[in-house]
Amino acid sequence: MELLVVTGLSGAGKSTCLRALEDLGYYCVDNLPVPMLPALVEIKATDHGPRRLAIGVDARANEHLYAFASVREQLLAAGHTIEVLFLEAPDAVVVRRFSETRRRHPMGELPKAIQVERERLRELRALADSVVDTENLSSRQLRQLVRDRYATHGGVLHLVLMSFGFKNGLPSEADLVFDARFLQNPFDVPELRAQGGFDGAVRDFVLKQDDAKELLDRIESWLRFQAPRTIREGRSYLTVALGCTGGQHRSVALTEALHERLRADPVAGPAPVLAVRHRDLEQALADTARLA
Length: 292
Fold this sequence. Notes:
Blueprint: E1 2-8, H1 14-23, E2 27-30, H2 37-46, E3 52-57, H3 62-65, H4 68-77, E4 81-88, H5 91-101, H6 112-120, H7 122-126, E5 130-133, H8 139-150, E6 158-165, E7 176-179, H9 190-195, H10 200-207, H11 210-233, E8 237-244, H12 250-264, E9 273-278, H13 279-291
Parallel strand pairs: 1-3, 1-4, 2-3, 4-5, 6-8, 6-9, 7-8
Helix pairs in contact: 1-8, 10-12, 11-12
């Protein structure tokens, strides 16, 4: 059985994550006491339902959290795969989200409740295979992240290529980050700046730079080394982020070019499922549409 434990801070997106996993065919159970995990896995292993389980674990089950490490080892020894996904966000973001939804924090009064919860989940976070900060992720973006990571399984790698702008922060979901800010910025060329957004002329300007070609060669070479080993490790996803200053020109051109290369000549077998995300360009287009 494939078991995904979804845990983390209240208000960080666990419910959104579990709903997205359910849409992907996972059998989902929220707030299951940790000692009951082996029994659930045993039951599901003998029926004809989904072979992938997603379990929500939170700090309300404090008296059982101490048992997680031993339960995890028990499941691994029995031949099951288990991954821990921990979702978190800064205190101020959690406070704002609870204020907007008018929900009460399960640990009591804010902001003290957040520190209580962090302490209760400290050991579980230390065991996490992946930690995602959802501060800059909308519900839609979090659902997309879940689809990117968990829509495929069985030895097929889901490879996400993402452009972003450093001025808006690093993408917390990225496994690899490459910096393209040393390339000449098309925004510094008057005739390209006058055109505004990303287009064919901008793409050509970026990709004709010798340094851009070398950067793409080096990234591709690294992925040909890492992707097969990521699959061998048992992971089903790898997120590669390319960043420039604003995330709307150089990084977009490079991400699209890398996608074309990897689509024509896959970096692993079976061929990874490729997805392209332009974090800051997509946000800028959404803001423009909203103002129009």
